[in-house]
């Protein structure tokens, strides 16, 4: 599968007219500055390899992923901030390139949907717990008979899960 | 000949499922035990027929009968026998037969359930039969696994080499047992909606019938997902085990819904409360199972795991999903308002804690659902493409679960109906103090120092210690003589031990996941033989690389020595890069060096050249601290589920006696 992805990546690159002379994938050369390299690595985890299925460029063996890794390192070495690197990638490839979806009109439901559900459930529970319980219905004749039989029958098993406070 | 028998058995199974449904419905309407009994017989025969079909399919794969299109497409004579057999469920058609086998097999077990009221059982058997009709029709008419090929090729196309792995050979059966096990909960829920009434004795009994199915399915699913994650960890060679990939999410949603179900079913069983909610979750769990099957099989989502993808069949699955779940939820909307269970309880009580658990689990499930489907919906709505990956789930799913874990240890300590929060606080004080201490120690022990990872370590410790505190409380540890402790420990029901194991296993998993995610160290560079790469405290030397021949592949096999940086405690690992000529695919076999709880994870990459022109291999090394716990935790959880399940049978026996 990785090979298939690689082939797909190569095809993708050669399809672009500018890349008629396809260079071998850029080798990974860590930045000399450890702090900068750590920033680059953190960014790699958030950037999607756009020709792969669902992989970050940190994990992908595709040529394009290697190119983007080199690009990110280059920009960080040039002193650009994480935000600038991200913005630049989004300009090139669209929102699709970041694994963190943007927060804007169309995605507020994505970001806050589950929180809203949680709050709604919490509010519902709160109101339910404040509602006075309905009057307990009296037992029917049949149930009274059942109750009497059960109470008379000492074979009722002790509840193994019972807590001292239940007793 | 055997293949034709298999094809015939599958068609026969479809006919039997139709019979089962028809007779169960008629039996229920006419209140005829004879008809209902005949329906149960048909269910049994149907399961046997599907089992025969499945056996025929496995036989075709085992002998490499390439006149069967499915075998020709997915098998190869060179493949080891395990993977020939596993290929039977590795393809779309074969996996559908497996799905039907589990569906009808569990349906047959359901007919043997004792003590179910006549109407409820007949309705459940009818529903299970209807599910069987739909999936068997799907298997027979659109995805026939037994279709012949003429002329038969001399050799097959082989199974995707990535799938040729022991963990993945057993991943689908476990996953499907979990997915489809929820179908019985679904059928029982539908039956309860048809038959159930606001009767104080009905719902506890119903809860008792549903719980074992929920428990078993959840435990199977736990094992299945863990096998899948472990496979992704050591077969894909990317150093990770979970990427919030849509297909991973597809299996995770039924798991979350199932976890919520088995907790809410406890309340329904013990107190008759939450009847409507438990019913809803039972419908939801199987709906997510079908949604998962649809997402994986249809190819609407891009994923590294999407195998055997076919849009047309996806559409069929979507139709089945829409028809079943749509009808079931419509039934729910109609009937549920009338189904008030009994059982009042105060907000602070065992029931209250279980409700809170359900709120968090369903919200977490909603997050996963949103994260999985939102890109699809957004693209369909306005063409915008976004990616939802790990950073999103770290910000939404993880805080929800963390909040749930904070309150989890208090739950089992609270009494039913009305709990004593202060008393629970006192009982958990020691565990809480220790957990905070461990959080601080964890924060200091690992470099670089990360406050959130430290807190996560504390949370994992809190889950384990808080759970153990509950057992200590029950056996009166340190407050009674040892003999008394032991006597009490022996008299604890298996279900209580199951709960303890499952919760502690969750803590073990949290510890592993937090430490591995927070502190893993990665390094990569081209190595010529004799050269060394360092990752954290480990040094890995490439000793030699040679070409070896496997049964159906060629491999570059690297021998590497893992040592501490000062050269201490050396161990040799083997990492391979396999090339499968059939299909022309390359896979990696990760070299895993187990060091206590840690893994040193070595991947041999492509061959290249050093600056000096010598041959060199791109070696990637990860030091994954505490990675062992990530897979150990879920194993403990599944064991907990199994223990609880064994307890159920005992208790059912106890409960049956007075009725007899």
Automatic annotation (TrEMBL), chain A:
Gene3D superfamilies: Cytochrome C biogenesis protein (1.10.8.640)
InterPro entries on file: C-type_cytochrome_biogenesis, CcmH/CycL/Ccl2/NrfF_N, CcmH/CycL/NrfF/Ccl2_sf, Cyt_c-like_dom_sf
TM spans (from-to): 108-128
Entry superkingdom: Bacteria
UniProt KW keywords: Cytochrome c-type biogenesis, Heme, Iron, Membrane, Metal-binding, Signal, Transmembrane, Transmembrane helix
Signal peptide stretch: 1-20
Domain CcmH/CycL/Ccl2/NrfF N-terminal: 10-151
CDD domains named in the record: CcmH_N (cd16378)
Family recorded in the similarity comment: Belongs to the CcmH/CycL/Ccl2/NrfF family.
Function, in words: Possible subunit of a heme lyase.
Family matches, as PANTHER family: CYTOCHROME C-TYPE BIOGENESIS PROTEIN CCMH
Protein name: Cytochrome c-type biogenesis protein
Highest classification ranks of the organism: Bacteria, Pseudomonadati, Pseudomonadota, Alphaproteobacteria, Caulobacterales
UniProtKB/TrEMBL annotation, chain B:
Keyword check for Zinc-finger: no
Membrane topology classification: Multi-pass membrane protein
UniProt entry tagged with the keyword Nucleotide-binding: no
InterPro entries named among the record's database cross-references: CcmF_C (IPR032523), Cyt_c_assembly (IPR002541), Cyt_c_biogenesis (IPR003567), Cyt_c_biogenesis_CcmF (IPR003568)
TM annotation in the entry: 6-29, 41-62, 96-113, 125-146, 174-194, 215-234, 250-267, 274-295, 315-334, 355-377, 392-416, 428-446, 452-471, 492-515, 626-646
Domain of life: Bacteria
Sequence ranges assigned to domain Cytochrome c assembly protein in this UniProt record: 89-298
Main location, first listed in the record: membrane
Localisation: Cell inner membrane
Keywords: Cell inner membrane, Cell membrane, Cytochrome c-type biogenesis, Membrane, Transmembrane, Transmembrane helix
One Pfam family matching this protein: Cytochrom_C_asm
Function: Required for the biogenesis of c-type cytochromes. Possible subunit of a heme lyase.
Family note: Belongs to the CcmF/CycK/Ccl1/NrfE/CcsA family.
Record's protein name: C-type cytochrome biogenesis protein CcmF
